[in-house]
Design a protein that fits this description.
6-stranded antiparallel sheet, 7-stranded antiparallel sheet, 9% helix, 310 residues, mainly beta
Length: 310
Amino acid sequence: MQLVPDLFAAAQRGALDVPDEWMAEYRGLVIGAPGSPLSLVAVDGLLDIPGVRTSDRAALSRHGDVSGSDYLGARTVTLTIEAYGRERHELAAALDQVSAAFAPALPDAPLVFRFPGVAGGGVRFVAARVRKRTIPVNVEYSNGLAMVTVELYCGSPLIVDPVIRSHTAALPVPDAPGGGVRTPFRFPITFGVPSERGVIRVTNDGTFATYPRFIVRGPVADPQIMNIATAETLTFRYTLLRGEWLDIDTYTHEVLLNGTAPRFATAGTGNTWLNCPPGLTEFAFQGFRLDPGPAGDEASLTCEWASAWV
């Protein structure tokens, strides 16, 4: 999922309205709160595996297929909500709230929830939009009980933590302890403690890979981000002056200079768009310092991410 600030900010506001389990919130509508006329009867699609897009190919002149990469498709979440009113006006007011929140043809909004056993049991959300809503008018309806079924389309199949986490590392200093070797050698040789500069540690508490956002700040030339464990790298053949930065979205593969100007041709050869699998991922920040003095220390790499589940 793309780290859209407005979407995550809305999810964080919604999380304040979901203090207990078996509660959900969408566009300001809280479902399942104590004393509320709205309660959840069923939620389908959160624990299901979304549809899978395959790139398998038929094997020529022999049996079977040649397996390709699999990619997850969109997720569909269906909510069954019970609306109750002791008087007709109470039921009408509850249904008005439901109709306003689950209106069609609106952009994605976070469906925030907290269900035991779903995505670690914490407060999570999916980015969703309404595709279908049914409210049958029947005998139960005439007695003050309406069953509402809402179908939500989630373009991203990921269930995510509403909190965006961030870590920043400075560009390593070549002659720092553990950052290089200086000559001439004099015995006995003492090795310093490896420097923490230039290393970012990302912890994905979920069960599926998440897509980080990187911000590289100058002054630095040819900045590079490398997954230390796999040696996969993302290099930019570009020189950032003091005060300039690159905004790198690994989900959309979009690179912006100073947050506005697209830079489609900055990527180097043999690049890999990095992600963060479950657990710990370490990224190394490398590049050429434009200023050997204190001004060169302003070069930095920031990584933002959110834990993800499927």
